[in-house]
Please model this.
Amino acid sequence: MIVVKGLSKSFGSQLVLDRLNLEIPSGRITAIIGPSGEGKSVLLKHLIGLLRPDSGSVRVDGEEITSMGRGELNRVREKFGMLFQNAALFDSLTVFENVAFPLQEKTRLSDPEIAQRVREALSHVGLTGIEAKYPDELSGGMKKRVGLARALLMDPRIILFDEPTTGLDPVISCAIHRMIRDTHEKFGYTAVVVSHEIPEIFDISDRVAVLYRGRIVESGTPWEIQRSSDPVVRQFINGSLDGPIQLV
Model:
């Protein structure tokens, strides 16, 4: 579904992505893990065309997006949904209005049709009867679920999850991970999940890629990654202070 080749990106003198190569298989959940500050969120922004690389290519469903104009990019972005770290809800809008927003902006559906789609989307993430609430009335886990409902609403082929369990307790984090797996099984989208949740992320992923110093140092199945002999991978998944990864 997504093929990244030779992707490089610097901000000033800081090299963030260094000739990175990665393949995201269609219809699978791919997790991108690695130490903080290594460019995982920057990589996600390249996958959806929010950033342009200094060099390299990103192909989405067979189309090279790095040289596309705004109109072409917007067309490709219709294939994507995204769940941000903070769910990115509009504080001044109700839950209903937040979830309905993409339909109101991008379709000509009638109000009753939009209302039905919103209720269905919220039901898919286990939320009913909260349409009139505002984001500040919701728990962190509920906000993430509302964000996922909004991401599902346009029936995307790809959903990007940028650290979807950040700031949540272990029980709620487990629930969010299970919801990602359950909705993936139901809708069959391609998922890319940036996460620090070790070892929990291995339970929901089909593929795992480890990002370190701007490159994918290893990728494979969760079983392969957990049994890797690479010192960076071993140190990260074991949470050890000893190894090539240095504290910053």
